[in-house]
Amino acid sequence: MGTNILAARLATLQSAGLVAKRALPAPTAVTVYELTDAGRALRPTVRALSEWGEEHGAPVTDEQTVRPGWILSSVARRGSRLQDGCSCELWVGRDVFELAAADGELSVAAGRATSPDAVVTMGPDVFYALATRRTTPRAARERVDVEGDASVATGVLDALSGAAPG
Hints:
Layout: H1 3-15, E1 19-23, E2 31-35, H2 37-41, H3 43-56, H4 68-77, E3 87-92, E4 95-102, E5 105-110, E6 118-122, H5 124-131, H6 137-141, E7 145-148, H7 150-161
Parallel strand pairs: 3-6
Antiparallel strand pairs: 1-2, 3-4, 4-5, 6-7
């Protein structure tokens, strides 16, 4: 998306009271946008629409653009396949995410994990094959690199494929 389009959309969301713009203090000194209370109140609606789309929408085709973060938000909604307190740094090509489990919930954040129990690295082809169930977690395990706790890596692969825990 072009920066002009992004700026226009953020301005629209700001004028609607859904996001607030603020500057971070030095040494960062960058502008950030955060959800307001009204924006956070939309979370259940957006989640319901996303779930509806997953169940009733047209299947993803190979010609469509799909980002790993979009898929991971869906994975997080399904709940955690990891033991509470565990975290994983997931590399999909050059994209990196932190997956962390707490209270049966899975959180996903862009960026490196502080002290992950495991680091899982895979190519986008393996990631998308798992997410679209074109491969199994067991088959994918042979095509990923894992550092750290193998059980955490297994939980991540299971979560990506939507497989039942265990």
